[in-house]
C-alpha cells in the first residue's frame, strides 16, 4: 500500500473540498426562490410572498423600479411576468420587484390596495411614482420599447 506524504494528503483534501463546493453550488442553483432572492441575471427580486411591505425599502437606487404584483394562480400574470423579467435582463437601468399576492386574504393585497391582477407600479430612478396600472404598461413601452398588449391589465 503506498504511503501518502503530507503534500499528497493536502491535495486530496483540497480536491475533496472543491467537489463539495461544486455539489453545494449545483444544489443552490436548483433550489426554489425565497423572498429577497434574485430570479437570475438582471435586477429581479421577489420581495414579498403575501407579507405587507414598504415599497420604498425595495427601490433600486438610480434605476427605474417596476413592482409586479402577481399570483401563481393568475393566468395573465403567468404570461406577463416572463416578459417583464426579460425586459429587466435587457435593460440594466430597470429593476423588477415581484410581489406575490398569494391570495386576496393575505396582508399585502389589502395594504397595497391591489384589487386586480396583474398590477404594476413604476418608479423613476429618483424614487418617484411614474405610473401604475394600465399607465405603467404605456410607460414601459415609451421608456423601454415594451410591447405587451394592454388588454392584460
SSE arrangement:
Layout: H1 6-30, E1 43-49, E2 64-70, H2 75-90, E3 94-100, H3 107-112, E4 119-123, E5 129-132, H4 134-144
Parallel strand pairs: 1-3, 2-3
Antiparallel strand pairs: 2-4, 4-5
Notes on the structure:
This protein has four helices and five strands; from the N terminus they run αββαβαββα. The protein is α/β, with parallel strands linked by helices and 153 residues long. It has a five-stranded mixed beta sheet.
Give me a quick take on this structure:
By secondary structure, this protein is an alpha/beta fold.
How many H/I helical runs?
Answer: 4
**Beta-strand percentage?**
15-25%
User: What's the order of the H and E elements?
Assistant: HEEHEHEEH
Q: Overall pLDDT, averaged? A: 81
Q: Main sheet?
A: 5 strands, mixed
User: What separation lies between the terminal Cα atoms?
Assistant: 72 Å
Work out the radius of gyration: 21 Å
- Structural category is alpha/beta
Residue share in helix? 25-40%
| Shape designation | globular
Strand elements, count: 5
Please give the order of strands in the largest beta sheet.
Answer: 1-3-2-4-5
Sequence stretches where pLDDT stays below 50 over 5 or more residues: 1-7, 14-39
